[in-house]
Sequence to fold (110 residues):
Amino acid sequence: MHPHYAAIYRVVRFVPKGRVATYGQIALLSGLPHGRARQVGYALHALRPDSKVPWQRVINARGEISLDAEGASRQRQILASEGVEFDERGRVDLRRYQWRPRHMRFLTAV
DNA sequence: GCCAGGGCGCTAA
DNA sequence: ATTAGCGCCCTGG
Fold:
């Protein structure tokens, strides 16, 4: 596996239930050069179905789910079951639900 | 709020 | 080997 992917997964695992993170945020926290947000999407897409990485907690910077209709409804259902609310336009209020880590524990957790 | 353009790495043609 | 889109984001208008 590409080392960047491992770094991405390590960070995503720390996003708690009931909160979300953005692709750009994960890229930044993962230490990718220049915050390559797009690569986070590829890393999550490459996850095995039985993975323990909470991929569903990563959404785009506008608070929207960035998947086709089928995948979006799956992701939304899981998030809703974790307590994340969506507005009538299908968006999450990031001011309310975005993960804001106080301590960067994932930096040492290998 | 919208749209366009640039940057980036991956993947399927 | 080349091209064309993308689970994106930033800046600028």
Q: What stands out?
A: Residues 41 and 103 of chain A are 24 Å apart (CA to CA). The helical segments of chain A are 3-12, 23-29, 37-45, 69-81, 94-97. The beta strands of chain A are 21-22, 58-59. Chain A has five helices and two strands.
